[in-house]
């Protein structure tokens, strides 16, 4: 559905270096990276705002073409150009000019989020502003959602509503997809099917979320083993009475241990909130 | 609707298999009756924090084994399972759980008489209650 090929942008602080990305229909793809890794630059480029080198197509249409723009809704991180307006005016603009507009959806969202129609966006709190943008963009009937840190500033109720909206978007059709930028592991755990890591402007190959949890494990063994920190997959070793090993390739590490006849006391998959920081820190390819 | 199942991070079997077995158990124990609608693969994935690739695989396997059926555009539903199949599966579930208990006892170096004695004690506690 979304195809990014050789996207390169060398401008300002964050650079993108020949990015390739495929988001397939029916899937949710999370782009993970630390602050300043270039997530927003990537999303701006993908939404057609600041074209760089390379090609970006959605269902075969170039992203900045008219057909391309009809394929996606975009939740940016900053919305400076809209801040001078009230929701009432933005609503009117969409209603009269946006062929994908779904009025019933917008009315429901305004009620759910309890949004003030007459207040200028710049006078709203961060969370309220985010809810307003969500209400406007999620009222457009498009197959692809591009979301740059969509949970920013939302209260718990808002988070729950957004969870439900994203679930509904994906359940509505097999043709739908979501690509979202985040640095919060819990969002990835709840939402994603595939993960790509953005590190210093380059994007890792995608990995299936559950594959990551199968590979990244914590293993406890009873005895000290010579050379364990150099064993395949091993990321860290700490010892108290037992030795605790973090591995990014459980299968290889366990094979290595069993060759040496070492008893494994217990092993357990790492949750993403434990494995992702390791991945981001070391820049290890996922 | 959510299902009363969970993923155990300490079990080494793949997640799709854990989901498959737990749904199968709910069906043969008649906690899920025929015609019951199951959550979508997306809803189940978000409940369990896994990917739809995993939940789809679990559903596909269950469909192949005749426990559920997906109707395009409508959803996934529990199938009628015959009584013989149910009792075979019930036996397998109980057998596997008992076997796991014995294996754990063995790991902790319990002798055969000790395990027997423990089992008899538990049986007495559970059936007398």
UniProtKB/TrEMBL annotation, chain A:
ABC transporter domain location: 2-225
Q: What's an example of a GO molecular-function annotation for this chain? A: ATP binding
The keyword Transport belongs to this UniProt entry's keyword annotation? yes
- Keyword terms: ATP-binding, Nucleotide-binding, Transport
Which Gene3D superfamilies does this UniProt record tie to the protein? P-loop containing nucleotide triphosphate hydrolases
InterPro entries according to UniProt: AAA+_ATPase, ABC_transporter-like_ATP-bd, ABC_Transporter_VariousFunc, P-loop_NTPase
Q: Would you say which domain of life the source belongs to?
A: Bacteria
Indicate what this protein is called per its UniProt record.
Answer: ABC-2 type transport system ATP-binding protein
From which source organism is this entry? Answer: Geomicrobium sediminis
TrEMBL record, chain B:
- Give all residue intervals belonging to the HTH gntR-type domain: 13-81
| A Pfam family the protein falls into | GntR
Recorded hits in InterPro entries, A to Z, give:
Tscrpt_reg_HTH_GntR, WH-like_DNA-bd_sf, WH_DNA-bd_sf
Q: Which UniProt keywords apply?
A: DNA-binding, Transcription, Transcription regulation
What CDD domains does UniProt report for this protein, alphabetically? Answer: WHTH_GntR (cd07377)
Protein name (Swiss-Prot/TrEMBL): GntR family transcriptional regulator
- Per the UniProt record, the source organism is Geomicrobium sediminis
Q: According to the entry, what is the taxonomic lineage of the organism?
A: Bacteria, Bacillati, Bacillota, Bacilli, Bacillales
